[in-house]
Amino acid sequence: MSAQNHKLREIVRLAGLGPSLDGAESWHELGFDLLDQMADVLDRTATAYAQLFPADPTATPSPTVDALEAMLASNPHKATAFLQALLSVTEAQALMMVWRILHGDEIVSVSVKYHESDRFELVVDLRAQGGGGITSFQTHDITCAPLLGHFGIIIIDGQPAFSGFYAHRI
Amino acid sequence: MLGRQDIVVQTHGLGRLPALDICARAILLHWRGAVFQSGATAQVYVGYGAIPWGREHEIFVYRDRDALDNWEEFEAHAGNANTMIYLLAYDETQVTVVVDDATAREMAPLILAMQWSIWNMSTQLYPLEKAA
Lengths: 170, 132
Hints:
heterodimer; A: 170 residues; alpha+beta; three-stranded antiparallel β-sheet; two-stranded antiparallel sheet; 5 strands; B: 132 residues; six-stranded antiparallel β-sheet; 6 strands; 30% helix; 23% strand; globular
């Protein structure tokens, strides 16, 4: 196991999600390593993030193992929420969306389209914190659908709002 | 604060950090230009994303930069009533929301929104105290 994967495993455990890794132990016999997948997906997400936000005015770091370690120290509830997404989602677009919300982006719009045996589409538009620009994140991977259940819900001034991204009970 | 009112908001098992986070998000929806300041160090955070909630137990939230400047220069006076909210959370069970007047038109819907949102999310979210 690489040093980065070892660190990622420790972060997952410190975030209280060790049982999720343990539950996938038996998959090793089938040639699947959940931790390897998480590390690969995180790498892809960080690369895609650096391309999408080459000069991020909000100074949000790329979603790397080191950034997750820092988040766990300063905002453990956010680290747990992101890791829950990383445990089940392999789409960089979706994980970038989660990362941005955790760092303060506002959820401007959500669109879900589904048709049996045909297509799934999730599009989330985010506004950078402080009234910045809009970025659209799109995926056709239906395994991303549960991410919507992590969105905070607020009704304020009579208006409905999705706001924030929170961890589920284990 | 001139007419300080403390509203104790139960976290319903959600935990201190998610509850504080939800309160901050609710305030940001109400006051788009809200400014956050550490209650411990007086550090002003550059946006919600910069707040280390895990290290903060008290946060001042000002309606905007002008409100912060006004509070820093004049402290509490009638002219800046209900332009700052003081959030405190020292245990997992409750967040205290301190305002000038909880029944004011500016405050009542916001406080209700915080309470409802925390309660609503507590039915499905992860209680942080279970983390290692």
